[in-house]
Amino acid sequence: MIHQQYEVDDHLHEECGVFGIYDMDGNDVASTIYYGLFALQHRGQESCGIAVSDTSGPKGLVLSHKGMGLCNEVFTPEDLESMKGNIGVGHTRYSTAGSSTRENAQPLVLNYIKGTLGLAHNGNLINTPQLRQELARTGAIFQTTIDSEIIAYMIARARVEQPTVQAAVAEAMKKIKGAYSLVVMSPRKLIGARDPYGFRPLCIGKRGNAYILASESCALDTIGAEFVRDVEPGEIVTITQKGIESNRSMCIPKEQHARCIFEYIYFARPDAYIDGVSVYESRLIAGRSLAKHHPVNADLVVGVPESGNVAAMGYAMESGIPYGMAFVKNSYVGRTFIKPKQSSRESSVRIKLNVLTEAVKGKRVIMIDDSIVRGTTSDRIVGMLREAGAKEVHVRISSPPFLHPCYFGTDIPSEDQLIAHNRSVDEICKIIGADSLAYLDEECLYEMSKGLGICTGCFNGKYPLDPPTEDIRGDYQK
Ligand code: SF4
């Protein structure tokens, strides 16, 4: 099922969105979490869930509901109404490690000697097999195949020795390696933590007397909260009735930070700010850079929706060539999309995208897309423009070519499946049937992130921390 999706959409997929809230006035938070998750739906569409608790109620009473599908498929108004509690966490998931099943949906809720933990995680650990073995040797029985359960266990175990749950999170962070943004709910506290490299985003918001943690700032806008600040890479924030407390003992020098640059290129919504940098502006910069370094004479610049659109605007601004709309997208093609049979006359790509013939007929078109992963759809999109009468199709990609896999929470596959691996740009251009092709230069990534430390491992193989010796992605249950 997952692989069929690539014939419709050859883009990367993010692993998850996380959300947490603590309302000090005691108001119920389930519906606010729902709307927060709704704003983060683009980060994962396979499953979602909410867990809530009452900070003045009995310790250990957590109400949770989760299931497969989009937020509006999983929750009914009655579900939300019945979830009473003023503290809670939520999650929306796309799986890159652990299969797509209801058991693997989050948040995870764990009962242990000190009470209950609710946890939601975005990212991928790279030392999962070692940690899993270590825990299994000492009697742990796993309910899921996801690395998030390992994090929950590590925190629960550490809590037995540590004076507070936030100290237990810090202790667990000494052992887990890789990419993680976490929201953790204990009976009386909400905790947010970001891995020391800052691969995945996490920010803090405030609405009245409620504090919020969210993967992207656009989720704060949606629920009418103000942005307070980002959680720093390596920082642990603890929200209690007394306010926010910060622990920076796991922070590393900022030169070592390695934010996933794909958050800016593709994953995050353009209305989000990550670590002070506007995603919209980053994409404009990428488009401008493509126009400066890879110009071509043409009549029209178009973006492959959605993430290609802003970069296309940047290209148009820099080149002076008009920006236009060439595609109409059907946004309802979800992860459970049934791919047409080979024998059928429907085309997977056409079901998702259609061309506006009037816009492109007789024109030389520059088409901007954010990436080419396997190359399973680009030829068809170029072909659609030609069939609609485009005289020339020049493809510009707002990221450098993918040459290596990702181990930190996105589904870039192994090298042999990447179209750019062992192929020149000219060869790829021929395969996709374009008149010309150019990719973003790697140097531009630093301009896009305004000099913040970024990860560029999938482009140049220089990973911020050693990748695992065996490729464990996606098959943890073995
Ligand atoms: S390897 Fe690429 S996709 Fe993975 S975290 Fe680094 S920049 Fe992001």
From TrEMBL:
Superkingdom, natural source: Bacteria
GO molecular function, one term: 4 iron, 4 sulfur cluster binding
Domain Glutamine amidotransferase type-2: 16-242
Cofactor (UniProt): Mg(2+); [4Fe-4S] cluster
This protein's record includes keyword Iron: yes
Involved pathway(s): Purine metabolism; IMP biosynthesis via de novo pathway; N(1)-(5-phospho-D-ribosyl)glycinamide from 5-phospho-alpha-D-ribose 1-diphosphate: step 1/2
Residues binding Mg(2+): 307, 369-370
GO terms classed as biological process: 'de novo' IMP biosynthetic process; purine nucleobase biosynthetic process
Signal peptide bounds: none
Active site per the UniProt annotation: 16 (nucleophile)
Record text on cofactor binding: Binds 1 Mg(2+) ion per subunit. Binds 1 [4Fe-4S] cluster per subunit.
UniProtKB keywords: 4Fe-4S, Glutamine amidotransferase, Glycosyltransferase, Iron, Iron-sulfur, Magnesium, Metal-binding, Purine biosynthesis, Transferase
Similarity annotation: In the C-terminal section; belongs to the purine/pyrimidine phosphoribosyltransferase family.
Function description: Catalyzes the formation of phosphoribosylamine from phosphoribosylpyrophosphate (PRPP) and glutamine.
Name of the protein in question: Amidophosphoribosyltransferase
Organism listed in the record: Anthropogastromicrobium aceti
Taxonomic path: Bacteria, Bacillati, Bacillota, Clostridia, Lachnospirales
